[in-house]
Amino acid sequence: MTPGALAPVHVAHADAWEAEGRLRERDGGGALEVRGLRLMASGLKHAQWNSGDVTAPDADIDAARAFYRTRGADWGVRVPVAMPWRHGRRLLTLDLMALAPEDFTAAAAPPWIATRAATTADLDAIVAIDAAAFEADPSDERPWIAPHLGADTITTALATLDGQPAGTGYAIRTDGRGGPALYVAGVAVAPHARRRGVGAALSSWLVERGLASGAELVHLHADNDDAARVYARLGFVRAPGLDVYVDL
């Protein structure tokens, strides 16, 4: 693959973020494609919820600026590692991982962990776990999480430890340019439940459901080396990453 070129995982990643934008159109979000960019907005202000996936170095940054300016949103872009790019400030690199169906190794959940599909009645518990795990403000996390619950193509998992809410995560099923794919994200374990197998159990549960629905590629990004080791045990391998740029 040419350095900086789009890998299948990059295309599927953009599909998932486009799905997020489409989901939130009635709340001021949306999605738009311009030269060299696939843009999405969430209806929220913070840059972490508004982003574009760069598909070519000659991307129309002015069109992206206009798209986000009309929504009053901060934003950033994801650029395939090694693709020439001259706009903004590089913030970090997303450590992407991918899984083919034949490589999946399910995690056996211990008897003290149970995982199920969350409903709108679980919103408070999910927000509390997410905010504690990521050291975030619950009032910021709630409007991002809430639209996932009940969405046709998104499954949110709630894991319990000894009957108490302990972990959450979600998966977006797409059938876009990247083909049948599943994006696993937002995997969060409450601080008191860490190192008990919760993250592996709920991630495995999400992957199993996604593969059963016909996904031919499962992808995610690992927040740290510990998370990467958990995903590696499920069969994920590292894929070409994405550099995140802000201040564009």
Helical residues, percent: 25-40%
Largest sheet, if any?
A: 12 strands, mixed
What's the end-to-end separation, in Å?
Answer: 28 Å
Structural class: alpha+beta
Give the topology string: H per helix, E per strand: HEEEHEEEHHEEEHEHEE
- Label the overall shape: globular
In percent, how much strand structure appears in the residues? 25-35%
Overall mean pLDDT score?
Answer: 96
Tell me the number of strands: 12
Low-confidence stretches: none
Overall radius of gyration:
17 Å
Number of helices: 6
Summarize the structure.
28% of the residues lie in helices and 33% in strands. The chain has helices at 8-23, 61-69, 123-134, 138-145, 198-212, 225-234; strands spanning 29-34, 37-42, 51-54, 76-80, 89-99, 113-117, 154-161, 164-176, 179-189, 217-222, 237-238, 242-246.
Verbal overview:
- It is built from six helices and twelve strands.
- By secondary structure, the chain is of the alpha+beta class.
- Strands 1, 2, 3, 4, 5, 6, 7, 8, 9, 10, 11 and 12 form a twelve-stranded mixed sheet that branches.
- The radius of gyration is 17 Å and the shape is globular.
- The chain starts with 7 loop residues before the first helix and ends with a strand.
Topology (SSEs and partners):
Elements: H1 8-23, E1 29-34, E2 37-42, E3 51-54, H2 61-69, E4 76-80, E5 89-99, E6 113-117, H3 123-134, H4 138-145, E7 154-161, E8 164-176, E9 179-189, H5 198-212, E10 217-222, H6 225-234, E11 237-238, E12 242-246
Parallel strand pairs: 3-4, 9-10
Antiparallel strand pairs: 1-2, 2-3, 4-12, 5-10, 5-11, 5-12, 6-7, 7-8, 8-9
Helix pairs in contact: 3-4, 5-6
